[in-house]
Prior knowledge:
CATH superfamily of the largest domain: Spore Coat Polysaccharide Biosynthesis Protein SpsA, Chain A
Largest sheet: 7 strands, mixed
Radius of gyration: 21 Å
Number of domains: 2
Helix content: 10-25%
Distance between the termini: 49 Å
CATH topology of the largest domain: Spore Coat Polysaccharide Biosynthesis Protein SpsA, Chain A
CATH architecture of the largest domain: Alpha-Beta Complex
Strand order of the largest sheet: 5-4-1-6-11-8-12
Mean pLDDT: 94
Low-confidence stretches: none
Strand content: 25-35%
Bound molecules: guanosine-5'-diphosphate-alpha-D-mannose, magnesium ion
Shape: elongated
CATH class of the largest domain: Alpha Beta
Structural class: alpha/beta
Number of helices: 6
Amino acid sequence: MNGLILAGGKGTRLRPLTVFTPKPVVPVVNKPFLLYQIEVLKRAGITDITLSLSYQPDKIEGVLNEVWDLGVEITFVTEPHPMGTGGAYRFAASSVNDTTIVFNGDILTDCDLSELIEFHKSKKAEATIALAPVEDPSRYGLVVTDDDNRVLEFLEKPKADEVNPTTINTINAGLYILEPSILELIPEGENRSFEYNVFPKMLEKKIPFFAYIFKDEYWRDIGTPESYLRAHHDLINGVLKIFDVDRSARIDVATAATVDNVSVFGEGCVIKPNARVINSVLGPGVHVEEKALVENSVIWSHTRISSFAEIRDSIIGRSCHIGRNAVVNAGTVLGDKASIPDYSKV
Ligand code: GDD
Ligand code: MG
């Protein structure tokens, strides 16, 4: 069995964070995001993984090559131009010629893939899709199933009048098991979307297409700033079942500083006297000066937070400078190297 991670999107909704860092490798609790997906695949014994790339492929390859021991075999496949989710699968055909687990490259989950594989086999399915229940299905692919879990309808990003949320709230979790026969439905070298083209075609052709519905599995698309931040809070508060958080970094915390047990630090962080860090993740080399506050936030590496500055519920990119007494309010997202002058309110 193969694994394929679709990691070619532009990550526009995560801008400005994704201007210099492609979405698949944005740090999530100080680890490139794809490592969480690779871990889920590895736990199910899938060690032959293809990464389907298009946007900033060299950066993704570079970041993953820095990680010493992934414990899996990675093949990088780069499209000459974005081919869409289905086209990307077809383009990778030579490395996904067996039953393949396909992951959207921005899904954080702690699901046990072996249960999904078991389900796929028991249904003798040619395609299985994982579904997650959500409150508002309009941002996702809405999937209608029958009592036997057969997929009846697939509606990508449905309009309000196309959905009745009181009856259907199961959406495409961006995780599929596909038999190689599905490759034959996709013309070579053309742009095709699983969601708009391939799934509707499978339904038309009455191909055995089944849905595995998540129950207590964690599921989140990290592709927006709010969701990216929430993923951090869930991970550091132990909401996910399988991922250990690394709190072993050597840091320099003043005795008079307040740092809670939940927050996570990268190597070489410096927290000065009377500074407070609460429910946050700080990347390597972040400095928090005297009496500054960082609460419910994610700060990427080498950012400096000057004295008396306050940051709440925000995401701050790499090598930023937050001036003295500045107030960074909830929902702020700053790109790399941003500089906030002293006393500013953003
Ligand atoms: N290689 C490659 N080439 N990858 C691509 C391309 C492409 O042309 N276009 C998108 N991708 C990758 C993205 O990098 C991402 O990991 C994944 O495909 C899905 O794209 P998104 O842009 O994140 O889609 P979405 O979040 O709006 O919707 C998708 O995910 C939802 C779940 O989060 C759809 O699959 C929905 O049906 C689904 O509910
Ligand atoms: Mg997405």
